[in-house]
Design brief:
Elements lengths: L1 E4 L4 H11 L7 E5 L6 H5 L3 E4 L5 H7 L5 E4 L11 H15 L3 E7 L9 H14 L4 E7 L3 H7 L1 H6 L1 E4 L10 H12 L7 E2 L11 H12 L4 E4 L2 H10 L4 H15 L9 H6 L6 H9 L2
Parallel strand pairs: 1-2, 1-4, 2-3, 4-5, 5-6, 6-8, 7-9
The structure holds NADP nicotinamide-adenine-dinucleotide phosphate.
Length: 288
């Protein structure tokens, strides 16, 4: 059985949909925190079991019979939790239940010295995987294009992106990443250890995004720089929790240092087509 965690999340639900096109539903299991959000999957014949990375006994039950485990990285850091401890729980249970391979959703910034806090968490998790004795693949995802439109939603809507200094980012869509992750989960290609960066084909900073957004919207979108301190003060005013602020500020520091800028052909090779470009992506998200 191929088991996918986080299957009610943005990435996980797309992976399940992709996998359904390749293997019978009876070969797919999902491990979700809220089975009531996965009734559509159960109705299609997918095994749905409840599990939380915080509770190893729930993982043991949900991952029973898993030949391969697609482990979606936790977003606990944003909410004051400890993603590394959660991933350690997950890896320990995968050992116990005899998982053959773990495919973990890592990030292009995975490094112990990353300025982006999740990059350090991904590096720590990759180190746990390297020492666990199970075959593993770290799917080093490019920065989600969906995160761009979430982070800069106000600026894209109002026509003025006001944010700290940044740098080029190889934006990559959930759809393209899910398709590539699924190809690797289904064994169409086997990669041991960290993949090359799975990215779109162009790295664009916020000035270039503003230019594209202006063209797509047909109205000007400007790009103005503020300091990290000013952004942090604004975020505090809005009551944004410290975990989210640390990730947000780390994003700009790491982008400015070029941590998200590498463009690599691996995603194109796995997909057998060009990944979605940012003009098309913005067209879809900003029009109408
Ligand atoms: N590449 C990037 O640029 C980028 C950007 C942002 C985040 N990420 C990482 O990629 C992951 C997937 O992204 P996404 O867009 O699919 O995010 P998402 O929609 O928030 O999904 C996260 C999934 O993780 C599950 N989850 C969280 N804590 C869990 C726990 N303690 N036990 C079991 N499951 C847990 C959630 O379960 P529920 O459905 O029950 O909430 C959800 O299904 C994120 O969690 C984050 O680590 C990457």
């Amino acid at each position: 059985m191929l088991v996918i965690t986080g299957a009610t999340g943005q990435l996980g639900k797309r992976i399940v949909a992709e996998l359904l096109r390749r293997v019978p539903a009876q070969r797919i299991g999902v491990s979700v925190r809220s089975p009531d959000k996965a009734t559509d999957l159960a109705a299609q014949g997918i095994r749905v079991r409840q599990a939380d990375y915080e509770r190893p006994e729930s993982l043991r039950h949900a991952w029973e019979g898993a030949e391969q485990l697609l482990l979606v990285s936790s977003d606990a850091a944003a909410h004051g939790g400890d993603p590394i401890a959660q991933h350690a729980n997950a890896i320990a249970v995968a050992q116990e239940v005899g998982v053959g391979r773990i495919l973990y959703t890592s990030h292009v910034s995975a490094s112990p010295t990353s300025l982006f806090p999740p990059g350090r968490d991904h590096a720590a998790t990759e180190a746990l995987l390297a020492g666990c004795g199970i075959a593993w693949t770290a799917l080093r995802h490019g920065f989600y294009a969906e995160s761009l439109v979430a982070m800069e939603a106000q600026g894209l809507a109002n026509g003025a992106i006001i944010a700290p200094a940044d740098g080029p980012v190889a934006w990559t869509t959930h759809d393209d990443l899910a398709a590539a992750d699924t190809a690797l989960l289904a064994g169409e290609q086997v990669i041991d250890g960290p993949t090359q960066p799975l990215t779109g084909t162009e790295a664009l900073d916020l000035s270039e995004i503003a230019r594209l957004a202006s063209e797509v919207k047909g109205t000007p979108v400007s790009r103005d720089v503020i300091s990290l301190d000013d952004l942090d003060a604004q975020a505090r005013q809005y009551g944004i929790p410290s975990g989210i602020r640390a990730i947000m500020l780390g994003y700009y520091r790491a982008a400015h240092a070029g941590e998200f800028s590498k463009v690599d052909p691996l995603l194109t090779t796995i997909l057998g087509r060009q990944p979605t470009g940012m003009r098309d992506f913005l067209q879809r998200h900003l029009s109408g």
